[in-house]
Amino acid sequence: MTIRNSTETKVRIVARAADDLKAEDVLVLDVRGICTFTDFFLIASAGSRNQFRAILREIRSRLSEGGFTPPRAEDEDSGRWVVLDLGDVVVHLFDPRARAHYNLEALWGDAHSVDTASFLTA
Amino acid sequence: MNLWPEASDRLVDQLEEQLKPKRFLHVLGVLHTALGLAASHGVPPEPVAWAALLHDMCKSVNKRELLRMIERDGERMPPEDLEFPGIWHGWAAAGEARRCWGIRDEQILEAVRHHSTGHPGHGVLGRILVLADHLEPNRNSAAQRRPILERAHRDLDAALAEVLESKIFHMRAKDQPVHPRALMTLASLQTVAKEA
Ligand SMILES: [Fe+2]
Ligand SMILES: [Fe+2]
User: Fold this and answer.
1) Which residues are within 8 A (CB) of A81 and not within 5 positions of it... i.e. 6 or more apart?
2) Quick one: which of A26, A74, B43, B122 is 20 to 30 A from B106 by CA?
């Protein structure tokens, strides 16, 4: 998989932050060649409101540490569906019900999912 | 819903009274463009006209009042919309449409609710309204609008994708958060186009 370096770094940072805070079902979708406005979707679920906030906070702080500007906060209190629009990477954090409701995976099916584990190992 | 056209005349009068003149002209422009698109795509004009006339009827209402109306009318605005006050007027308008104008057609109501962002599950009416909202004559010069308007008459989805794309890039450039539903509407349009 060849990705522009900073894109890959972003996916890695977000995937690891989500995984470290025990987000459920972390999924990376490769939408290059399909969507013009981004290259990757990263989807994750949080079981509780507190976990939801904690994951968002961790993603933000690690992006800053990595030299990226995290996008302006939006609706972190809804604890339902938050999108972090990083341009080449769009991060969706859901609560499980909203995730099932919006069912983004169904839009692309398995065809575009990327081996998430490859982003979690060094 | 047999109130056409007498009720729609009353609605036009009410809009003229309540909206700023520029906004009123915008609504008439949307009506004009939406009816044209409806004709090209074989969609009955009445629901399209209702959606066009109703979509910005609460545009002059302040934020606090909008939330109160949404609550009062039992519009189930999802929490992710709370951070985007710019789209609340669509939810309030759908509530008004049900309460004051007896509109029960969910296609009309959904089109009105989601006219600022689009919706991945939008029917043809919803797509026409998003497009007409952007392509109505008062927005841009005829020369600027013509290419995309012509596309919209041939291919609704392609034109809608283009409009949403430019909107999203524009907002990103200004560092404004893009509504998740706008992103997902574009993603679904582009995915369908790719896999068709
Ligand atoms: Fe509007
Ligand atoms: Fe409008």
Assistant:
1) A92, A93, A94, A95, A98, A99, A102, B78, B79, B80, B180
2) A74
CA distance linking residue B185 with residue B101, whole number of Å:
29
CATH number, domain of B154, equals 1.10.3210.10
Q: What's the gap in Å between B41 CA and the centre of ligand 2?
A: 21
Pairing of strands A89-94, A40-45: parallel
- Please indicate whether, in this complex, the C-beta atoms of A108 and B191 are within 8 angstroms of each other: yes
User: In chain B, which residue's Cα lies nearest the Cα of A74?
Assistant: B83
Task: Please state, in angstroms and as integers, the Cα–Cα distance from residue B182 to each residue in B55, B84, B115, B169, following that order.
Answer: 17, 12, 10, 11
Number of domains in chain A: 1
**ipTM confidence:** 0.81
